[in-house]
Amino acid sequence: MSRLLVLLLLLFALPARAAPPIVGDWLVEGGDGVFQIAPCAQGLCGRLVGIQRDPGDPMPVDVHGNPQCGLELLTVDPTPDDDEAWHGFITDPRSGTAYHAILRLSPHGQLLMRGYVGIPLLGQTQTWTRFIGRIGPDCRFMSGNGPQGVMPEAAH
Question: Are strands 33-40 and 72-76 parallel, antiparallel or unpaired?
């Protein structure tokens, strides 16, 4: 009985792990999509949860004909390296091509996502910003007029 009590005390005495700072919803460069990055079995995964499209526009599909809404397209290691970068892969849903990915937080709180083939020097970096707003059940969202994907006050 005393061993169980000691074990419980140790368990509750351990500090809680904070979520990695890249966890959350991110508006992609160009403002036409929202990725949700969250812990998963592979480390951290990014799902496409928001797609900007007009009413009546069909849901975009991937290379296999599946709806892009909810697709897991990004996987990265759960912890950053010594340079505070997360490494993994991102997939283009239209072609099915997977690219290496390096994610870093900028000093301004933006997520810098660099996709590349072979070496990072040959890649391209996109700047993603935190998305604060609402996404409908059909993955539709408004881009809003505010900074960093913030929806106007009247729309909240």
Answer: unpaired
10 Å Cβ neighbour count for 111? Answer: 23
Its pTM stands at 0.79
3-state secondary structure 70-108: CCEEEEECCCCCCCCEEEEEEECCCCCCEEEEEEEECCC
Q: What is the pLDDT of residues 102-150, one digit of tens each?
A: 999 999 999 999 999 999 999 999 999 999 888 988 999 865 534 444 4
Q: Provide the CATH number for the domain around residue 131.
A: 2.40.128.520
Q: Enter the tokens of residue 32.
A: 């036409």
What would the two tokens of residue 133 be?
Answer: 């707003």
Q: Is residue 118 part of a domain?
A: yes
Per the DSSP assignment, residues forming a β-bridge with 105 are 111
DSSP annotation of 8: H
Q: Domain span at residue 42? A: 19-142
